[in-house]
Design a protein that fits this description.
With 526 residues, the protein is of the alpha/beta class. It is built from 19 helices and 20 strands. Strands 1, 2, 5, 6, 7, 8, 9, 10, 11, 18, 19 and 20 form a 12-stranded mixed β-sheet that branches. Helix 3 runs parallel beside helix 6, helix 11 packs parallel to helix 13 and helix 12 runs antiparallel to helix 13.
Length: 526
């Protein structure tokens, strides 16, 4: 291996499924970012997670620690507060939010729940003067990449329409990030509507019309182009669900290279591009919005790479890019045969286990109400079920305090009620998972690696292929992820490292999720 790169960039494109990359990257222009990565690096077609709960926080933590949720303690995107409301698993009441205008008396996020070191933690220990910057639209997209002692970890707050951090990572906001991270800069990003960059290209590739059934209207933002931010009652949330969100993150990342990097020391620049995730949740992977988002993501990557060339030289930066999980088609897509060619008569079994049967969404609050009624029938009046946070069921303190016999009776009743749902194929008690998880990708192993001991939940509910717990952006609309099937569990991996990693190479054989961190470690000289 030659001289180490000056900047190692790690990118996680949220909801970037291996099946999406395999079927769609060939349609993108030769001037785009993905074409450049394919020319200058190695494309591993399938990096496979070895846990069943394929969500953002478990995915990012697995990439940056090299360990599954059972070991990391990051088992879901959300948990429940004392009132049963779903909150980020990284929310920390002891931390305060830090904005470009100063500290705010509001709870921040932290890495306190993570039980093990990250890539950034190892770099900080080995090279104390290394520069570590992480930027995302999500707290859970930024925090694992930056680790415990970053120079800066920033994420977007849609309610404030600005990029923020927390006192868990810094007492003040980084000066270099103010120009693009502040409220006025964000307002400029949504001044014009989101329109289709190349309608003829989108029309040629999308299998569905722009107004396909099942798409979600985010508070008046609409389900068809153009998407005017002025019509959105929550414009910050709409901005995240457009390519402008990724563009803002990439611009901040380049500012960090300009102003935060220490001379003659390595830099880890951890980027999470999350617009793809929000677009997919609202409109589905076959939508016009998803195709336009892919085309614009490709252009954003090209601009980012050109920016790195200009700042450090094309031979002095390296990159590792992957996804945190995949996505499944809208339930309504079963009515549009062209959107599921793998289901056509005579087609071979789908390599990504994508569904052909009709499925439906599971609404977590509806499931929680059902379970509470079941609990009261089983053991009497009281408040026993705190709620559901995909894919877990939590009991109230009263439920947890029941004697062993009544608690078992309660859990058995809840298990039976969950199994009565056609969309739920397996229910596991979190306290009965094997002490030692088997290696490999059997369903038992995937579930075992997904569930850490003493995580606070009592039951894990696994959906059948294609079904999912509604993400809640627009209840009853859109799609999601979170299952153990390969359409959710397999993502691509791209590695670009001039002089180190073969250029123009494609690896078809599946690789383990641990390779993301392993490549990044080698490029950082660890």
């Amino acid at each position: 291996m030659g001289p180490l790169p000056a900047v190692v960039v790690t990118i996680v494109v949220d909801q970037f499924a291996a099946w999406i990359a395999q079927e769609r990257l060939d349609t993108l222009p030769s001037t785009g970012g993905f074409a450049r990565l394919r020319r200058e690096g190695t494309w591993f077609r399938q990096l496979r997670y070895e846990h069943a709960a394929t969500d953002t926080a478990p995915g990012h933590s697995a990439l940056y620690t090299g360990q599954p949720p059972r070991e990391s303690g990051i088992f879901a995107n959300e948990v429940l507060d004392a009132h049963g409301a779903r909150i980020s698993i990284l929310r920390d009441e002891s931390a305060r939010l830090v904005t470009p205008d100063g500290q705010v008396d509001a709870a921040g996020s932290s890495i306190a729940r993570l039980r093990i070191p990250t890539l950034a933690d190892r770099l900080r220990e080995a090279r104390p003067r290394a520069t570590i910057v992480s930027v995302s639209l999500k707290d859970r997209g930024a925090i694992f990449g930056g680790g415990r002692h970053p120079d800066a970890t920033l994420w977007f707050d849609p309610s404030r329409e600005m990029f923020v951090t927390s006192t868990a990572f810094a007492s003040s906001y980084p000066a270099w990030a103010r120009a693009r991270g502040a409220h006025d800069a964000v307002l400029a990003l949504r001044a014009a509507p989101w329109t289709v960059v190349d309608e003829s290209w989108v029309r040629a590739h999308a299998a569905t019309p722009d107004d396909q059934p099942g798409e979600g209207d985010l508070d008046g933002w609409g389900t068809t182009f153009p998407h005017d931010f002025a019509h959105a009652r929550r414009p910050g949330s709409a901005l995240r669900a457009s390519p402008r969100g990724d563009q803002a993150v990439a611009a901040l990342a380049l500012d960090a290279v300009d102003h935060a990097r220490r001379a003659n020391e390595p830099m880890l620049l951890a980027i999470s591009l999350s617009s793809n995730d929000y677009v997919g949740h609202l409109f589905g992977p076959d939508s016009w919005e998803a195709w336009d988002q892919l085309r614009r993501l490709d252009a954003t990557l090209a601009q980012l790479f050109d920016g790195l060339d200009a700042r450090v030289g094309s031979q002095r930066w390296a990159l590792v890019l992957s996804g945190d999980h995949g996505i499944v088609t809208l339930p309504e897509a079963s009515r549009v045969a062209a959107s599921r060619p793998w289901c056509s008569h005579g087609a071979a079994a789908d390599a990504f286990e994508r569904p052909c049967t009709e499925v439906s969404r599971l609404l977590p609050d509806d499931i929680a109400r059902e379970l509470e009624a079941t609990a009261q029938t089983a053991i009497g009046a009281g408040h026993w079920v705190l709620g559901v946070a995909d894919p877990y069921v939590f009991l109230t303190p009263e439920g947890e305090a029941l004697g062993a016999s009544r608690r078992t009776q309660l859990i058995d009743a809840l298990t039976a009620r969950l199994r009565a749902h056609a969309e739920i194929v397996r229910v596991e008690r979190t306290d009965s998972v094997a002490t030692d998880c088997a290696a490999g990708e059997s369903m038992d192993a995937l579930l075992c690696h997904a569930i850490p001991p003493r995580n606070g939940a009592v039951l894990y509910a696994m959906t059948r292929a294609g079904a999912f717990f509604d993400a809640g952006y627009v209840n009853g609309f859109g799609t999601s992820h979170g299952s153990p099937y390969l359409f959710d569990r397999a993502v691509p991996l791209f590695v670009r490292a001039p002089g180190t990693v073969p250029a123009g190479r494609v690896e078809v054989a599946p690789i383990r999720f641990t390779e993301f961190r392993a490549y990044a470690e080698r490029l950082l000289g660890l």
